[in-house]
Amino acid sequence: MEQTEITVYLEELNEKIQIMDENILSLEKGTNDPGVMEEIFRAAHTIKGSSAMMGYTGITNLTHEIENVFDNLRRGALQINTLLIDTLLDALDTLKKFYISIADNKPVQISVTPVINKLKAFLEKKTKERIPFFEPQHDNQPDVSFFLDQSEENIIYEAKTKGCEGYWLNIELDSACQMKSVRAFLILETLKQKGEVIKCIPSIEEVQNGRFNTGFATLFLSTEKEEGIKNMLLSISEVSKVNIQAINPGEYSQVSLTNEKQKPAVSNKEENVNIKMVRVDVLKLDMLMNLVGELLIEHTKLKRFTGILESNKNTLTKSIQDISNHIAHITNELQEEIMKIRMLPVAYLFNRFPRMVRDIAHKLGKEIDFIMEGQQTELDRNIIEAIGNPLIHLLRNAIDHGIELPEERVRLRKPPAGTVKLKAAYQENQIVITISDDGQGVKLAKIKNIAVNKGLLTAESSTKISERELLNLIFLPGFSTNEEVNDVSGRGVGMDIVKKQIEQVNGNIEIFTQEAIGTTFTLKLPLTLAIIRALLVEIYKQVYVFPLTNVSEIIFVKPEEIKWIGPNKVIEVRHEVLPLVEMADYFNHFKPKERLEHTFIAILSYGGQKIGMVVDNLLGEQEIVIKSLGEYLKNQRGFTGATILGDGQPALIIDVRYLVESLGKNTVRTLNNRSIA
To answer: Are residues 333 and 239 part of one domain?
Structure first.
């Protein structure tokens, strides 16, 4: 089988699984759109056909059964309930396991039989009416016509995967039995030796106290066969009759579409946009992007050359200027188109999360109303890949740390279901992603106590720390506000990874919280990592580059306006004291001369903090192509990369985040303790 065929198949398989996942969750929310079922049916049919051609019989058989389920749903022969949704999602998880196995080229034995049997159990149901287990056959036989609830159905399905069967046992004692409670205790103890008693009617307490007529019923799980269980019970003295029936949970569910509270139909026009596209190898896109970058560099050189010749007003200069302008126009258009090809709607990332949120909420016993907005906002595919894990961590924390349990929310006069919102939007030349919840908020006092106990703060410094700095402590490795460790959170890992991965793509993260109101995490990300707008400056005859997103403003100051606080230079801008950075001092740069009478200060910002960078000259704004520093300099702090200037010389790109965090915070602490000189 050709690798190209496998690649195309996997792309289609992944796309169709995602379509089914989204639409099944939409069905659970109560959508009445018949097109949703049709879309799931078509996706399953497509997977079945392509898998059959590729020879993946396990996938073919499973999707065939999914088709049967949705065919019955379309015809009204089957009703939607929570158990059916869980089973369909289980089937999708199995398909995802197949996808991973094929993509990794590591064949894994994946059994589809358990999930296929679950799906068939729904199809074998002949009526929508509830079926009693046993009807009373005479006056003395207890009426045990009752049904399974959702948790009991789940227990039985789980037991089936471990080789156990579920049975209803209707046990009748002799009418002359004098010690019913003793006999009932003996029966229950005998059953416990061969399996597990899940339910008893009347209750176990009533049965053991003898508060029943001549019989009682139990829900029993065991690996034993029906005949063996029956003979075991009949061997007990004064047991006159035993009825036993194996359970097919789908026949005894109390949950049906007609009995559930219907939720409003979900409508999201953004998700219904029909996007026509051609699949392109990412390596080819990267190659095109590199070529565009080289073209941009050459245009910068040509532009510089035309500037030199501007003083000579001749025909040659005019011709070169025309050529330069034309190349500039072509380069800009080509760059925009290549950037569009690299851009993807964040829906490619967001659409993974509804299923994850649902599963975590169910695991924690919480009700979550998950809202997504701005799915069609586009972002560079490399950034989309980089922020996937950070968003997962933030959503998990919002559900686990933020949203309260339903009963607690009711006590606080909140709706039982908490709201978690994931939103993407453009803001100038950035994309802003927010994750907000209406939960309990971050308790600042609790963070402060934990920080002091862990030695991250002293008792004295804890009284002076700002709210922003206090909140940023949650990004330290090992810091957690969860007192109990579970499989969702609480081990103190995650938030430090979130911050690190966001910063690796030149983004930043901010927190806003109000106790009892909720918390919002804001991620600010560049649209692309390849080409950025930048400010070029000269410092001691060396050119440096500042990303324009980090430049708040440029000011012009006199030497006497620069003040000192201890060993630190500062400047006051609109009643705000900012630390000053001298490139020569900070990076051990050689100082060839003293500064002129007036000085340019570039105000750089990151994460709500600002510093001033002393520069000699402003060379202007331009788009630059970011180049890596290579293996030798990749660990050099203070720089994020380099670019090639119009004269062919390299210029280093300043890491504003590093400067602000390493210098700014230390200086701010000094400012709190000393006065300006």
So the answer is: no
Sorted by sequence, the CB contacts under 8 Å of residue 636 that are 6+ apart come out as 629
Same domain, 400 and 475: yes
Token pair 């679950």 is at which residue?
A: 118
**383: amino acid identity, one letter:** I
Locate the DSSP E strands across 64-109: none
Strand pairing class (650-654; 542-547): parallel
Give, for 619, the enclosing helix (H) or strand (E). strand 617-625
Residue 313 domain flag: yes
Segment 591-595 long-range contacts (CB within 8 Å, at least 24 positions apart): 591/540, 592/540, 592/541, 595/559
The CATH number assigned to the domain holding 13 equals 1.20.120.160
Cα separation, 6 vs 16, in Å, equals: 15
Give every CB contact of residue 167 below 8 A, 6+ residues apart in sequence.
Answer: 219, 220, 221, 222, 226, 229, 244, 245, 246, 247
Backbone angles phi, psi at 581, to 5 degrees: -110, 125
- Say whether both 512 and 363 belong to one domain: yes
DSSP H or E stretch at residue 116: helix 113-123
Per the structure, how many domains does the chain have?
Answer: 5
Copy the structure tokens of residue 579. 């630390």
Give the C-alpha separation, 570 to 557, whole Å. Answer: 12
Distance from the first to the final alpha carbon of the chain: 77
Q: Are residues 292 and 403 in the same domain?
A: no
pLDDT digits (tens, 9 = 90+) for 218-259: 888 898 888 889 889 988 888 888 988 887 654 444 333 333
Q: Please state, in angstroms and rounded to a whole number, the distance separating the CA atoms of residues 29 and 262.
A: 8
In a domain, 138, yes or no: no
Secondary structure of 300-326 as H, E, C letters: HHHHHHHHHHCCCCCHHHHHHHHHHHH
Taking only the tens place, the pLDDT of each residue in 339-383 is 777 788 898 889 889 989 998 998 899 999 999 999 989 888 888
CA distance 496 to 480: 10
* Secondary structure of 642-658 as H, E, C letters: EEECCCCCEEEEECHHH
Identify whether 34 is preceded by a cis peptide bond (ω within 30 of 0).
no
Is-contact 482 493, C-beta < 8 A? no
Report whether 571 contacts 558 (CB < 8 A).
no
Catalytic residues, which ones? 45, 67, 397
218 with 157, same domain: the answer is yes
Specify the pTM: 0.61
374/515 same-domain check: yes
Last residue of a domain, one of 479, 497, 526: 526
- The answer to whether the beta carbons of residues 660 and 669 sit under 8 Å apart is no
Domain span at residue 294?
282-337
452 plus 435 within the same structural domain? yes
352 and 433 housed in the same domain: yes
